Amino acid sequence: MAVLVIWALGAVGWGAVLAGLRTGLRGRSRGAALFAHAATPAGTVLLFSLVGFGSLHATIALTAEWWALLAVTGFRPERLVATGGPGRLAAWAAGTAAAACAAQWFVFHL
């Protein structure tokens, strides 16, 4: 059951970041950002499987990253680059680490 929750949270987080990128970005960077975001799940799962980890670890990591990004930027992911600076980037990294640890515990101990 915990794995289904992680998958659902990952799908909703991915969609929320996609919606934020679609509405927040303009110009030439928009297409590249949308393509990179769309390719991220498949590329990450492929990378984790080549390294020897399973896709569950990749899903947990991506879910933590997307929700930490949404929390740090106030559901406007373009803020990370436009007005972010090192402080917002550090907050995103710390939030991702905390969320990933919590999700790992949730999945493997419940």
How would you characterize the overall build of this protein?
Helix content is 86%, strand content 0%. The chain is an all-alpha fold and 110 residues long. The chain has one domain (2-109). The chain is globular. Keywords: Membrane, Transmembrane, Transmembrane helix. The chain crosses the membrane at residues 6-25, 45-69, 89-108.
Looking at this protein, list some descriptive labels.
single chain; about 110 residues; mainly alpha; about 0% strand; globular; transmembrane helix; membrane; transmembrane
Helix percent reads over 70%
The coarse overall form would be: globular
Quote the average pLDDT: 91
Calculate Rg over CA atoms: 14 Å
What is the N-to-C order of secondary-structure elements (H for helix, E for strand)?
HHHHH
What count of structural domains?
1
Cα(first) to Cα(last) distance is 9 Å
Task: State the total count of DSSP E strands.
Answer: 0
Q: Low-confidence runs (pLDDT<50, min 5 residues)?
A: none
Largest sheet: none
Alpha plus pi helix count:
5
The percentage of residues in β strands lies in under 5%
Which structural class is indicated by helix and strand composition?
A: mainly alpha
Task: Chart the SSEs and their pairings.
Blueprint: H1 2-24, H2 28-51, H3 55-73, H4 79-82, H5 85-109
Would you summarize the structure shown here?
Keywords: Membrane, Transmembrane, Transmembrane helix. This protein has helices at residues 2-24, 28-51, 55-73, 79-82, 85-109.
